[in-house]
Amino acid sequence: MMQTPATRDAPPFETLYARVREGLSPGAGDVPLDRLMQVYRRLADLHDTDVGSPLNMGYFCIDPDAASVTAMDETNRRGANVAVRGQHPASAAFEQLAVDLVMEAFGIDPARGAGHFTSCGTEANHTAMIVALTDRLSHRNPRCNAYDAALCSDESGREEAYEYWRHGALPLKVRPALYVSPQTHVSITKNARNLIGTASVRTVPVDSDLRMDVGALEAAMAQDAESGRYLPFMVVGSVGATPSGIVDPLAEIGAACRRFGAWFHVDAPWGGIAAFSPGLRAACLAGLEAADSLIFDPHKTMVPLGAGGCGMFLCRSRGAVERAFNVSGGEAARQEFAYLSLQGSRANSGLRVLTAVLRPAALARRIEREAALGETLRRLLREAGWEIVNRTPLPVVCTLHPAMRAGAFDAADAVRHLREGGVLAWAEALREGQPEALRLGIISRRTSEDSLRFVVDRLRAFTAARG
């Protein structure tokens, strides 16, 4: 069966930019709208990745469907700003319903928790770090007692009880410590860079299955706390880590966090879709009840990226979120997103997500079909002589061929070969001292078993040609 390619050739960026600028120069007068649209469609069709292709097996961004595109059209046309108090109450109600249904899927009580849509997972993780810092760096935390009271004062010089949201990290006599693994998404370090400095990031080794080593985590937190130089305040676990799709041992990490008073955050932008599948939920989300917060990106698994991303931050404690963001001067209602998030103006994202979560049976069938395709891909690769080097219930497959270990070719060579055939794949460094692996994921709703056979046949021909 013919497979629509995901990859397209493109000239260097500066060449393409010059072409766009030349084609749309307003120097000779106003550029008509139809001209702008024609140039965009032509160049995007020629050069941009087709996320809707069944051969998109590398870029975690779901293909559009008619329902979510219709919902985006409707919300874009109205231009509702759900962050403005009382401005668009109907749109805010739909937004809140979407947030509540997603929170319930992850086992969070909407009456106690808080959640909102974000532009992306990085913003959602940034939000989580701010909430964790606010909650754990406070006089209310008995472990947070090494700070200079003289640096905690009001305008008249009177000392105040220490609060991160009020005094920042300056008064601390210890460094806040944040624990990640080599599989943790780089956005965590990026956010630490902006908030507390990357010297606060402590990398914990992984076990043979690439999951965070909980024994090593506990040893690191104990050593750091005993040293008097660090205050363990946050641990980040992964559900569906981007490089490998692994799921960290959530219950065990949560228990370690409780012992050391650290906030437990779960990064689940893609793997969080397991919450909507009875078949995958237990395998991927056991122990999630121990997490204080998590992120989930519907634009990776439910609805297209569209005009603005569709990530989510979800938290079990509305009080912790309100302490971090509420500048209203009073109590914030649960739908007042401007006082429960980093955001000011923001469009309505919930309507497009409702097109998926209001059809739970169809959504679960699709997720479980894709998980089954992941198993089929593993089988086909093994039959073709490839080794599977990751272990996950999610349909993310990392693979090595014996010839790669012998140095005949590397993952980048395989990625280039697949790209020439229209397949978008990725190379990932998973283990120190081992070759990079080829990563393939079931991402598009249009991917079928025929798509998988096309990919594996192309790999089979490639390895045969390499001897």
Task: Write a structural description.
Helix content is about 40%, strand content about 10%. With about 475 residues, it is an alpha/beta fold. The chain folds into two domains: about 70-355, Aspartate Aminotransferase, domain 2 (3-Layer(aba) Sandwich); about 360-465, Aspartate Aminotransferase, domain 1 (Alpha-Beta Complex). The strands form two sheets. Strands 1-7-6-5-4-2-3 form a seven-stranded mixed beta sheet, sandwiched between helices. A four-stranded antiparallel beta sheet has the order 8-9-11-10. A hairpin with a 7-residue loop joins strand 8 (about 385-390) and strand 9. Helix 3 packs antiparallel against helix 13 (about 350-355), helix 4 (about 90-105) packs across helix 13 and helix 5 packs across helix 12 (about 320-325). It is globular. The chain starts with 12 loop residues before the first helix and ends with a helix. The model has no long low-confidence stretch (mean pLDDT about 95).
